[in-house]
Amino acid sequence: MILKVALEKISPLDIIGNTEIEISGVQSDSRKVVKGNIFVATRGTNVDGHNYITAAIEKGAAAIVCETLPESAQPGITFIRVENSLEALGLLACSWFANPSEKLTLVGVTGTNGKTTIATLLYQMFRQLGYKAGLLSTVRNYVVDEPVEATHTTPDPLELNGLLSKMVEAGCQYAFMEVSSHAIDQRRIAGLHFKGGIFTNITRDHLDYHLTFENYLKAKKRFFDDLTEDAFALTNLDDKNGTVMLQNTKAKKYTYSLRSMADFKTRILEQGFDGMLLEMNGKQVHVSFVGKFNASNLTAVFGAAVLLGEEETEVLRILSLLHPVSGRLETLHAPAGYTVIVDYAHTPDALNNVISTINQVLQNKGRLITVVGCGGNRDKGKRPLMAKEAVSGSWKAILTSDNPRFEDPMDILNDMLAGLTDEERKTSLVIPDRRQAIHTACSLAQPGDVVLVAGKGHEDYQIIQGEKHHFDDREVVKECF
User: Fold this and answer.
1) Cα within 13 Å of Cα(7), Cβ side
2) What ranges in 320-403 are assigned the alpha helix state H?
3) What are phi and psi of 247, to 5 degrees?
4) Structure confidence at residue 209 (pLDDT)
5) What is the rounded CA–CA span in Å between residue 439 and residue 102?
């Protein structure tokens, strides 16, 4: 591709050098640069790519995109100065891969909780409707039916556009993706053309990155602000910030709710651990999901599918055939007569939702034992809140290790214990070894009880001192059985 063509989407502040040269690719990691590449110097949380411009040139970079020009520009190298190199990287990635998002019907899902479930169920639904579709999610990416390992909720712009390009090549008509607040803030989605955006909810999370809730909210809202007139914006009216997302969007506005009048309205008629009977826009459907938050997620899926032109009755028929996403309220029945639920809940609000759902189904006919921990090197402020939610909603809470990363697990557990009263600490168990904590919970369970193992869900590893070790909550639960 000619450099001048690659730069069409961006608005450079300065250009020094020749833009008629041919470039062989785009890179933001100087270690991956090969001869003829454009190197984009981005400023990250821990690393500034501007410090690696010389290294990129030594490896053969033909052009440099940066926010600050080096003191001396090497001859034969084209320098492009931009206001925001993260934004420029996204736009260059779109150009390099021939704008794949414009050749798909791309729908993004953002919010604190529910992104994975909604995006995955939309992908599954459209596959069952007979379309070729792709998925970009926390658990796994798919190009039609080919799985591609997921490393981030939303990949970097080059990987993201590369995956979208593969979907186009495979004949996909639709793509459904989770859009994280980090990806919005870091402009990983710059240049993508979305035909729809879905907002789930917003509660405390990622404050280690965003610092304030207001910044977190603004990041989510920016996704909707950037939608175009030919897109739809579907928001959850049951979240107090649901309407905030629609304030400045140019997209067509729609709502969904379990409590209020909305374009897509659902009522829970009956529920048990094996599913719910729902009424959606006046029509009844039985689904293999449990809980208000899942009823809300399914309403978003229902609404989005209808807004994409599918017939209501057919959408409801397929909803009745779908199953929960791996590690999201995943139910395992013990031979001894108790139930274990494995869930990814790793925020106070998500944990509250899961515990409330279990207690609604139990109706005081069984006890709830909750195993939960908090991740290391992440938002410390939510640790005492997580412990409080676990203790206040459970017969017995067992506080344990999650992904301690580079922290001492006991330091994390002490932060959690700080949220409890002396009496609550006495009635709780602290077992740093997660396997032992799960085994203890299962040994305490009697017929009719429920054990909730929260925090990791689909993850099959623990990160200890920066190293990944195989660990799957579901495997450990089956050991107990």
Assistant:
1) 26
2) 348-362, 383-393
3) -55, -40
4) 55
5) 50
CB-based contacts of 416, cutoff 8 Å, min separation 6 = 373, 374, 383, 384, 386, 387, 399
* Sign of the dihedral through C-alpha 207, 213, 215, 217: positive
Q: Cα dihedral sign for 399, 200, 107, 313? A: positive
From the CB of residue 103, how many other CB atoms can be counted at a distance below 10 Å?
A: 17
Query: Which candidate, 300, 325, 319, 285, places its Cα nearest to that of 129?
Result: 319
* Secondary structure element (H or E) that encloses residue 131, with its range: none
Measured in residues, the chain has a length of 481
Question: For the residues 388-405, what does the mean pLDDT come to?
Answer: 96
The contacts of residue 363 (CB under 8 Å, 6+ apart) are none
Other C-beta atoms lying within 10 Å of the C-beta of residue 449 = 23
Q: Which of 266, 236, 232, 271 is nearest to 249 (CA)?
A: 232
Residue indicated by tokens 């396997």? 435
Residue in 299, 358, 300 with CA at minimum distance from that of residue 331: 358
Give the phi and the psi of residue 362 in degrees, each rounded to 5: -65, -40
Beta strand 275-280 pairing with 264-272: antiparallel
How crowded is residue 131: how many other Cβ atoms within 10 Å of its Cβ? 17
Report the C-alpha gap between 438 and 479 in whole angstroms: 10
Classify 424 as helix, strand or coil.
Answer: helix
Tens-digit pLDDT profile for residues 145-180: 999 876 665 678 999 999 999 999 999 999 999 998
* 104: confidence class by pLDDT, cuts 50, 70, 90: very high
Q: Within its chain, how far is the Cα of 96 from the centroid?
A: 26
pLDDT band per the 50, 70, 90 thresholds, residue 211: low
Q: Which of 119, 93, 115 is nearest to 23 (CA)?
A: 93
d(CA 265, CA 295): 10
What's this model's pTM, rounded to 2 decimal places?
0.81
Burial classification of residue 432, based on how many CB atoms lie within 10 Å of its CB (0-12 exposed, 13-18 middle, 19 or more buried): middle
